[in-house]
Amino acid sequence: MVNDSKHFLVKELGTPSFPSPLNLSKRDGDQLANYVPNDERVVLNTSLKEICNEIEQGHVPLSFERAGPREKIFFDPSKCKVGIVTCGGLCPGINDVIRALVMQLSWWYRVKTIYGFRFGYLGMVKESKLQPLLLDADLVSDIHEKGGSILGSSRGPQDIERMVDYLMDYKINILFCIGGDGTLRGTQEITDEILKRGLPISVIGIPKTIDNDIQYIEKTFGFETAFSEAVEAIRAAHVEAKGGQYGIGMVKLMGRQSGYIAANAALASQDVNFCLIPECSFDLEGPNGLYHHLRTRLENRGHAVIVVAEGVGQKYVQTNAKDASGNTKLGDIGTFLRDDIKRYFQSVDFPANIRYIDPSYIIRSAKTLPSDSIYCSQLAQNAVHAGMAGKTGMLVGIWNNQFTHVPIKIAIEQRKVLDIESEFWLNVIESTGQPRMMQNNSPA
Amino acid sequence: MVNDSKHFLVKELGTPSFPSPLNLSKRDGDQLANYVPNDERVVLNTSLKEICNEIEQGHVPLSFERAGPREKIFFDPSKCKVGIVTCGGLCPGINDVIRALVMQLSWWYRVKTIYGFRFGYLGMVKESKLQPLLLDADLVSDIHEKGGSILGSSRGPQDIERMVDYLMDYKINILFCIGGDGTLRGTQEITDEILKRGLPISVIGIPKTIDNDIQYIEKTFGFETAFSEAVEAIRAAHVEAKGGQYGIGMVKLMGRQSGYIAANAALASQDVNFCLIPECSFDLEGPNGLYHHLRTRLENRGHAVIVVAEGVGQKYVQTNAKDASGNTKLGDIGTFLRDDIKRYFQSVDFPANIRYIDPSYIIRSAKTLPSDSIYCSQLAQNAVHAGMAGKTGMLVGIWNNQFTHVPIKIAIEQRKVLDIESEFWLNVIESTGQPRMMQNNSPA
Amino acid sequence: MVNDSKHFLVKELGTPSFPSPLNLSKRDGDQLANYVPNDERVVLNTSLKEICNEIEQGHVPLSFERAGPREKIFFDPSKCKVGIVTCGGLCPGINDVIRALVMQLSWWYRVKTIYGFRFGYLGMVKESKLQPLLLDADLVSDIHEKGGSILGSSRGPQDIERMVDYLMDYKINILFCIGGDGTLRGTQEITDEILKRGLPISVIGIPKTIDNDIQYIEKTFGFETAFSEAVEAIRAAHVEAKGGQYGIGMVKLMGRQSGYIAANAALASQDVNFCLIPECSFDLEGPNGLYHHLRTRLENRGHAVIVVAEGVGQKYVQTNAKDASGNTKLGDIGTFLRDDIKRYFQSVDFPANIRYIDPSYIIRSAKTLPSDSIYCSQLAQNAVHAGMAGKTGMLVGIWNNQFTHVPIKIAIEQRKVLDIESEFWLNVIESTGQPRMMQNNSPA
Amino acid sequence: MVNDSKHFLVKELGTPSFPSPLNLSKRDGDQLANYVPNDERVVLNTSLKEICNEIEQGHVPLSFERAGPREKIFFDPSKCKVGIVTCGGLCPGINDVIRALVMQLSWWYRVKTIYGFRFGYLGMVKESKLQPLLLDADLVSDIHEKGGSILGSSRGPQDIERMVDYLMDYKINILFCIGGDGTLRGTQEITDEILKRGLPISVIGIPKTIDNDIQYIEKTFGFETAFSEAVEAIRAAHVEAKGGQYGIGMVKLMGRQSGYIAANAALASQDVNFCLIPECSFDLEGPNGLYHHLRTRLENRGHAVIVVAEGVGQKYVQTNAKDASGNTKLGDIGTFLRDDIKRYFQSVDFPANIRYIDPSYIIRSAKTLPSDSIYCSQLAQNAVHAGMAGKTGMLVGIWNNQFTHVPIKIAIEQRKVLDIESEFWLNVIESTGQPRMMQNNSPA
Q: Are C36 and C66 in contact (CB under 8 A)?
């Protein structure tokens, strides 16, 4: 009965034996927050019907370990040394996370030594000669007011063994890795190497991906800020589209394999007529292709706004290059579509005008919105609780609005993508008015 | 086994018999969204342990009916007439909700007649001589870009029978009430009168309260925008506090019985030192009172920021007046504290300076943030699905990130308040650094 | 003595004979604004020394006619018909100008017929079959809250005679042309054709150029909003630059021949290290070239921010194409520099990272800032005063903070460029810390 | 002939003898900015007619000394010590000014010692035991991103002799005073005491008043940011006014004796119907009183927006108290009007609703807008040039868009007020549609 949930079991370095310095409560009614028992779990699926089905069939419903402060912790705070590293592309909220990690560690757990490794994994190998920053409450107190990462970041892996050597050199007990898919693969390997060496080092990941595409994590930090910024670019495209006869405004947004930013920004702006995401294939030409529908829109309404996620239509712009993180370099579908739409309308002698906007880094370097700030703080606080309790090889996440622990291994098995059968995507379709499918050999 | 969940059963006007015009799917794998079966339910509690306990004891876990488009609907869209009314104080997102109701009704259900009643319940009695607006897609297409309500609002009840007469005069089939606690009591009474008369009129509430204090609704629309705006006022108070020797910046925020805005804004801003909410009593004087701790903070750090929810400390400022909605008029704790803090520091001859900010309506009349816009649209779309399906006496809500149907009766039994034993409040305490309790006869 | 100022004399259609309906005053002390006498003039040069020199030499100092309401006007408001056209690229504030023209004409001069021609000069030839909009106070009351132009715009000339025919068809008395350099050449030609035909049609230009490059106009509307928006893009570039080891953030901004946007945005942001404008040549390679100084900056400070105006360095990216307005199409210096900087640092084996941002239309489609809104209103109001007074072939402008009348002919003789010997440019240089000259054969 | 301009002659400590370290040019054409000769002056009045009249009558037109870098300076930069103090209420841009002072002094003049006195004049007397901050480029590099003053401020005078003693103790050569009317009176007294003692200390004022009410200064820094922020409060009032039947939205803005903020914010927002400023008296009751016109507006349009400057209608709310700066404490016209408007409409049985917004400190603690940032930098740079050149007892100002030197004595003789016979006020009247006069015994 237990083995269904085995995939979500989180590793621990050992039995926690130190009392938590948080001085929380173990009972209700005393107006004081309680410790979270280690066996508290949050169900994956909230459908009453499916839960009952599972149980009738003798299964325990799948669930995640609940995050939160533990009564007993694994590390002696007075001797604990911590490292923080930020990897991959920037994303709103990194500094909020760093700040909250440092505040929670130093104010509440009384940890005295916190290193900030510089420029991602690069700063975790001796050869790079990058000195870590020593972080404390004063140094980080205002950093949440700025975008970016005060530690800097970089793409690409470093030698796993050297990084573990480095952690040993600095006598690190807990490593917090703030990073995305590529980073987390490295985090998993670091964890494995640490376990192989039998070291008492906890490795906690805080998932960072502006694309919101990590499995079993309802929402990544910075995502809301990012799509909210994107709405501004769409507004500009809408103004431009309406500013000319048969004007088309097109915006390229982030989204390598998942269209969350494009879909959310389109839904929030209400001005988008075509939202193109990687999860939903489409044809350009033909009677049910994009261009035909675009032309019809222009004829009827005089203007149109298109949002395209960067990962869309790679068959038209394929490259074989890879970036330093090992991701395939995407071809630029934005400029391709801009030019090809021009070509199409010239070929049919229709006087359309296209204006193309690529807001690029403007979106990811924004200051976090207040709700995202709160979320960043909470993720970081729960990451600290997990690390101090001796958890390892895990991510802090959120599921059904509860903070959870998710084994990294499971989380990186595949990317989260937008379900095009969901009501959310239906909402987008309803909002844009675009055809449900724009493929010539599919039912419209 | 079923009777545990009886409180959350939603009334229906009858058996839906018309096919939905939405043309959705009933199966997975066809790249098309599915109708939501009427027996889909979302569990209230996501704790694996508690769910298993319930079931072991022979109970069905409590759950809400899941919202969403139904395959069969109750009203014939071609003949359906709809009314929309907005009541009570303004709140970010009302226009987003109105817009999405109209868009969903007219574009997707092909409803032809949508009335917008003017100025709340006042516009639903013949005597007020207020003509309803006829709403259509063109009229509402840009209204989400503005704060407020294009329909206008008012406080206070009107005669229930006259309002139902009015609905009959206009041959209304579905009434959407956008309003808060007071409004929803009226909505419930309208529903009861309709059921008493045996009329085929569905009444759907869309909960609107900037205080986020409606039971069984995870988050009300506009709330995120409101507390995000409040962060700006706190920023100003922080600047003022630091601008003078021993400067105190104090901000009064909304929150009659619930401190959600104050707590979220304080947590997001990271600059607050004392967050005072109605859920958490405190003393002003004495060795563990606010003034003592405030003075200590000033001595140590030179400045302090206080956020106070309007419903706090009513014992000091009690009035017996009531507003038109029947709410007790709150005494003004903000100006009381401003003056009393001055008095206190003069009495102890300490040169503190206090600057007081009451952002009042600035917060509630803001344009919605993008994520709130999306939420408003989704609430409205699900309200339309519910109304067309013949549900009545219910609210659309959200729970565990799923849209739900909640009987109004249950939702208004009591206000939702912030649990001061929650991790969320712990986070606020940790962020402000204020004592867990500021009462002289309680354990600090 | 008079002939020195002949270049700035404004043409008039005839002697104004109708009393102004504005009911203003002709004397001080009655708490009522005064009419502006037609011989009020504003000196070009405010240097006491130079004014005295001129006068000593028997010259009248150069001056502009002062704008403002005249006591007598040329057109009978009750019969006057007005046309408005917006041409060329979008710019913040166009809708503010349209709104203020309509408000001033209809509320204060009681003009009853105001046409808005669609999509620039295209909407002023019968062949385009574009019907003009009839504009009134209700229709324009909220348009200033949106970017863009409600009339739409287009580039490129139309046949002058046909446009004048069209004005005759619609019995237009005053034509307001909102447009930039190219447009104003057309405006001048329309004026000439009207004068040739002896028609009583006044032509008033309102200079629109986001580049702020019109001679004898201190500041064009929308310019402040535009460079303020650009500051956001620079902020993003700065975040990106600091986010990586040896990070370079580069932003391309508008500015075909004049670097005003780049220079103002750089000065306002304080984060720019190299500001490249068309007025100031520079070398890329060599001991005093950009790349050398960029490398030095990276070595010393670890990151760098570059702002480049689009008109810079055209020798590297020359094209021979022209756009519809007849402007030479600029080669894309932004992507050229991005790629060439990469190439350079690879060639010298230095691990720099460049992130490139092209905010493009985001900047020009923004809602106007409050001070720009005021300026737009004032320009429009003065344009109406001038048109009603029968002035023609002129622009409304501002000089020494006074609104003025400037003959179009003079204004378009050459572009206004930033004086690199000015204190303003010195301020930019001081703020960026860049070398005064980056040319190998010039004194650094 | 010269004596007409004597009022604007600026005092100097002596003949400058050190070469400026700025390495600027003395001739045109070398692509390098020039030093400003000490006899460059900017005419006060730009009217050609009035200039010619003056000269014909044998007078030299009034003029200000032009600011800018001088070829010879009075202080030896290597030995020069500088103090900076900020006094009075906060205002947007103070940190921008401090930053630019420090940058200009340390980077360009190579001054090594810059003290920031804490909390206004309070920090310039030994008795307060406040240690000055030592300022350098690193410390100030990011301060412009925050509102307020990093030095803190205070109201009220200190003993002049003790302050001069303090300057002597710290061997200060140049004191920069950032402050308003009250402060500048102190600045003048400090200057007089210094001259009396024959000390080589230059005193340079940088006028700071959010009310923009300093004579001979076209615009004070922060003013544009302040009224732009105020537009947001007006927007909220407009939303509230339209949100209820016969809704009135009222906003109180700063403006003790001058209505610049109210008038500019009203003009920029376009949503104001009544703008009440201290310069323009009005009656409340009677056939031409505010209440009558307000009621007419409500009857015709259903809502109204009022902006009231704090200094308005003091006869209704008179107090005799004074604040620490010696300003008469204003009675609160905002809450008076709110209550009295309620009373009036109840007395005439008209169902109006009033919502009152007092944004107070929110407006003055805002981060500066980009154009204001630039202005702050330029003011500070010119202040440094003036101080290094040995000028004293003067303000840096701007006139006809040129930076100028203005003797403090002249500038504080009277407040600058808005001329209600100006075209600017006419624009406001036209925009609001309010009567030109609302007084019963005056011509409407």
A: yes
pLDDT above 50 for B106: yes
Contacts of A362 in chain C (CB under 8 A): 232-233, 236, 357, 359, 362
Question: Helices (H) and strands (E) in chain D — how many of each?
Answer: 14, 17
pLDDT digits (tens, 9 = 90+) for B209-251: 999 999 999 999 999 999 999 999 999 999 999 999 999 999 9
Output the CATH code of domain A223-365+420-432: 3.40.50.460
**Min distance C277 CA to chain A CA atoms (Å):** 22
Angle, alpha carbons B304-B308-B313 (nearest 5°): 120
D interface with B, Cβ–Cβ < 8 A, is 90, 118-119, 122, 130, 146-149, 152-154, 232-233, 235-237, 239-240, 242-245, 247, 249, 355-362, 365-366
CA dist C150 and C85 (Å) reads: 10
**In Å, how far are B282, C277, D131, D279 from A110, measured between CA atoms?**
28, 52, 32, 60
pLDDT band at C3 (very low <50, low <70, confident <90, very high): very low
* Among the listed residues A20, A21, A130, A19, the one whose alpha carbon sits nearest the alpha carbon of residue A83: A130
Which of C231, C181, C187, C251 lies closest to C211, judged by CA? C181
Length of chain D: 444
CATH tag for B224-365+420-432 (out of 1.20.1250.20, 3.20.20.80, 3.40.140.10, 3.40.50.460): 3.40.50.460
Tell me the two tokens of residue A283: 């044809």
Chain centroid to CA B75: 29
Identify the pLDDT of residue A89: 93
Give the tokens for residue A424. Answer: 């959310």
Active site residue A211: yes
B289-313 b/e (C-beta count within 10 Å ≥ 16 → b): bbbbbbbebbeeebbbbbbbbbbbb
The 10s digit of each residue's pLDDT in B164-206 is: 999 999 999 999 999 998 899 999 999 999 999 999 999 999 9
Q: Which residues of D154-184 are buried (b: 16+ CB within 10 A; e: fewer)?
A: bbbbbebeebbbbbeebebbbbbbbbbbbbb
Our measurement of the distance from residue A74's CA atom to the centroid of its chain's CA atoms, rounded to an integer in Å, reads 28
Which tokens belong to B2? 């079923």
Interface chains of chain C (3 or more CB pairs under 8 Å): A, D
Provide the residue count of chain C. Answer: 444
Q: What is the dihedral of CA C179, C181, C183, C186, to 10 degrees?
A: 140
Give strand pairing partners of D274.
D306
Which residue is closest to B235 within chain A, CA to CA? Answer: A145
Structure-token pair, residue A301: 């309404």
Longest dimension (CA), chain C: 77
Comparing CB atoms, the residue among A90, A118, A355 nearest residue C240 is A90
Task: Say how far apart CA D121 and CA D182 lie, in whole Å.
Answer: 11
> Is residue D367 a contact partner of residue D179, using CB atoms and an 8 Å limit?
no
What is the pLDDT confidence band of residue A7, given thresholds at 50, 70 and 90?
low
- pLDDT of C354 reads 97
Residue tagged active-site, from D96, D181, D211, D340: D211
Instruction: Name which of C63, C68, C370 is nearest D423 (Cβ-Cβ).
Output: C68
| Chain C to chain D Cβ contacts (< 8 Å) | 174
Question: Cβ contacts (< 8 Å) between D130 and chain B: which residues?
Answer: 245
Q: What is the CATH topology of the domain spanning C65-221+368-411?
A: Rossmann fold (3.40.50)
Please tell me the predicted confidence (pLDDT) of residue B424. 95
What is the pLDDT at residue C320?
A: 78
Report the range of poorest mean pLDDT among A372-381, C26-35, D258-267.
C26-35
Q: Distance (Å, rounded) from C-alpha B239 to C-alpha D366?
A: 9
C226-364+420-432: CATH, from 3.40.50.720, 3.30.360.10, 1.20.140.10, 3.40.50.460 = 3.40.50.460
- DSSP letter assigned to residue B8: G
